[in-house]
Amino acid sequence: MTGSRRFARLALLRLQVELLTFFRTPDQLFFTFLLPVLFVVVFSTIFSGDIQGPPGEPAVPFPQYFVPGMIASGIVSVTFANLATGIAIEQHEGLLRRLAATPLPRSAYFAGKVALAFVTSVLIVIVILAIGVAAFGVSLPREPAKWAVFAAVLFLGAGSCSLLGIAYTRIIRSAGSAPAVVQPPYLVLQFISGVFLQYSVVPGWLQAVASVFPLKWMAQALRSVFLPDWIGRDDYGSWQTGTALLVLAAWFAGAAVLARLSFRWSRGQG
C-alpha cells in the first residue's frame, strides 16, 4: 500500500472512531444539534414579524433573516467550539500521549478530527434549513451561483474554524476549564456579529471587532444567498460577498499556520 493510500485509509478509520464517539455522547449531541434548533424555533417565534424594506421592495420575514446567521453560528459551534474543547480534553487526559505510542500518524488523527467537523457542519446545516423551511417558511435560493457561494462559505468557514479550534487549545490549561475558556468568546461573537439580531443595530465599535473574525463574514455571505440586495445595503452597505470569501480564505491560510505553530501534542512540551 502506497503512503497516500495508507494515510487515506487510516484517516478514514480515525473518522469512523470520531463519529462513533460523537454519536454515542448524548450531551454532546444535544448541545451540538438541539441547541441551535431551539434557538431557531425560539427566536423565529418571538420575532415573527417582517423586516420592512424601502418603498417598492417586499418585506422580509424575520426567520428568513435569522436562519442564515444561525447556520453560520452552528458551523462555528461544531468546528471551533467542539474541536477546541474535545482536543483539549484529550490532551490533558493523556489520550494524545497514548496515541503517540501507536502506529497512527498524527496527520491521520487531525484528518479524522477535521473530517468530523465537516460532517457535523453539513448535518447542522441540513437540520437548521429543514426546520426553517418546514416550520417558518424560509425560502431557498434558486440560482446556482448562490448555492456556489453557500458551498464556498461552508468549506472555508468550516475549515478555518476547525484549524482555529486546534490552535486555540494552546491557551486551555486543563480539561475541566476547556468549556469555560471556549464558550465565552464564541457567545460574545454571536451577538456582535449579528447572529441573533440585525447587524445594523450593533454599535459601530463592536462591528469593527466582529469584522476581524470569521463569524461575521460567514453570516454576511450566507445572508447574501437568502436575502435581497436592499437588506445588504441597510445592514452592511452592500453584501461584499467577494470580500467575505477572501477574508475567509485568508483566515483558512492563517489558521493553518497558527495551528501548525501553536499546537502541542503533549502539554508537557515547552
From TrEMBL:
<dbReference type="Pfam" id="PF01061">
    <property type="entry name" value="ABC2_membrane"/>
</dbReference>
<feature type="transmembrane region" description="Helical">
    <location>
        <begin position="67"/>
        <end position="89"/>
    </location>
</feature>
<dbReference type="InterPro" id="IPR047817">
    <property type="entry name" value="ABC2_TM_bact-type"/>
</dbReference>
<dbReference type="InterPro" id="IPR051784">
    <property type="entry name" value="Nod_factor_ABC_transporter"/>
</dbReference>
<keyword id="KW-1003">Cell membrane</keyword>
<feature type="transmembrane region" description="Helical">
    <location>
        <begin position="110"/>
        <end position="135"/>
    </location>
</feature>
<keyword id="KW-0813">Transport</keyword>
<feature type="domain" description="ABC transmembrane type-2">
    <location>
        <begin position="27"/>
        <end position="266"/>
    </location>
</feature>
<feature type="transmembrane region" description="Helical">
    <location>
        <begin position="186"/>
        <end position="206"/>
    </location>
</feature>
<feature type="transmembrane region" description="Helical">
    <location>
        <begin position="147"/>
        <end position="166"/>
    </location>
</feature>
<feature type="transmembrane region" description="Helical">
    <location>
        <begin position="243"/>
        <end position="263"/>
    </location>
</feature>
<keyword id="KW-0472">Membrane</keyword>
<keyword id="KW-1133">Transmembrane helix</keyword>
<dbReference type="InterPro" id="IPR013525">
    <property type="entry name" value="ABC2_TM"/>
</dbReference>
<comment type="similarity">
    <text>Belongs to the ABC-2 integral membrane protein family.</text>
</comment>
<feature type="transmembrane region" description="Helical">
    <location>
        <begin position="29"/>
        <end position="47"/>
    </location>
</feature>
<protein>
    <recommendedName>
        <fullName>Transport permease protein</fullName>
    </recommendedName>
</protein>
<keyword id="KW-0812">Transmembrane</keyword>
<dbReference type="InterPro" id="IPR000412">
    <property type="entry name" value="ABC_2_transport"/>
</dbReference>
